[in-house]
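hey so i finally got around to running the thing on that chain from the lab meeting. sorry it took forever, my laptop kept dying and i had to restart like 3 times. anyway pasting the input first so we r on the same page abt which one it is
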Amino acid sequence: WERLVLPCYDDVGDPVIVVVAKPRLFRDDLLAAVLDASLDAIMAVRLCRDAAGSIFDGEFVAVNKRAAQWAGLTVEAMLQTNVLSLLPQLKRSGLWDRYVAVSLTREPLQFVTRYPHGDDERWLEIACVPFGDGFMVTHADVTERKIAEDAMHRSQAEYARAN
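ok and heres what got predicted. didnt touch it at all, straight out
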């Protein structure tokens, strides 16, 4: 038997933990189903190193449909493809360096950040954990929640000034 534990978010954005125990026989099918059922984008990356051992890129070893949709690609197009060639904005935004640091220090990371997405800018809640010689990252688009929170804070500030 094997147990899979995944942090996810339900349809209203509340955090939930999904725990599934299945015989090893069903492992691959189960992993694919759980990945594709997630409302978050999930990507597992193996680091690519040069002859001196320096990290120069990464390779997608697992992605779910949500991650592929976010990238505007198919799952098949992302697998075994270099991360920075598909998503160069990761390097420009500084996220790549943070992800690599998670792999090197073995310390998980969770944060909310702005991220350029096409002609738009989105707010992402990101969790990154070490995964072999690489990392696994999940991100959830929390733009609507962030906009609502900012509006609430502005309203509270205006109310406080009025009083």
